[in-house]
Amino acid sequence: MKTLGILLTLGMATSALAQHGKPQFSSGGRVDNMNKIRPMSGISRQDRQFLKDAAGANWLEISSSELALGRSTGGWAKHFAHDMITDHKAALAELMQLAHRKKVMLPDTAPAMVERKVGMLARYRGPRFDAAYKTLQIAAHKETATKLEQEIRNGHDAQVRDFAVKMLPVVRMHLRMAQMGGTITHRM
Predict the structure, then answer these.
(1) What is the dihedral of CA 93, 98, 100, 104, to 10 degrees?
(2) Entry pTM
(3) pLDDT (tens digit per residue) in 123-153
(4) Is the dihedral angle over the CA atoms 109, 110, 113, 119 positive or is it negative?
(5) Using an 8 Å Cβ cutoff, are 92 and 58 in contact?
(6) I need a labelling partner for 125 at 20 to 30 A (CA). Which of 6, 34, 65, 176 fits?
(7) Average pLDDT over residues 102-128
(8) d(CA 90, CA 178)
(9) What span, in angstroms and rounded, lies between the C-alpha atoms of 43 and 182?
């Protein structure tokens, strides 16, 4: 009976390989085909990538907004930057706690991609800085909203999806604020 079970399992595995090609491996994970690699921590590749992308998005907002506090001449940019620092530091702290619970390592400093974008922004001062900062904020919040929507639709982990659901309205509000040139407490 035990031999029959082993043979059936082996037969199903062989059939799956024949249908889907050779197996894929992930570091620290188990084999699964068709880009459905499930790491041993129980979190999918989709969710893991979302957590990393969300951390990068928060670091971009914090770093670019800290720069804006010193480089901007306009009232709107300084008020907006202050709001972004406050909101995104809180979101990053919550994200880091979630990632820790899910055993996903996130950077505790801004990633290189963020440093490059902030470095390009740092070339400007005054009104040109304000315009570049606003453009960056609009683009970054659009991209983040799209990634949040994708996680809500395609994410596997309920807690990670819940984080995306919670953050999407905030990111959309930030996007509208950037597009209108206003903040929660200050309208220009």
Answers:
(1) -110
(2) 0.74
(3) 999 899 999 999 999 999 999 999 999 999 9
(4) negative
(5) yes
(6) 176
(7) 93
(8) 19
(9) 38
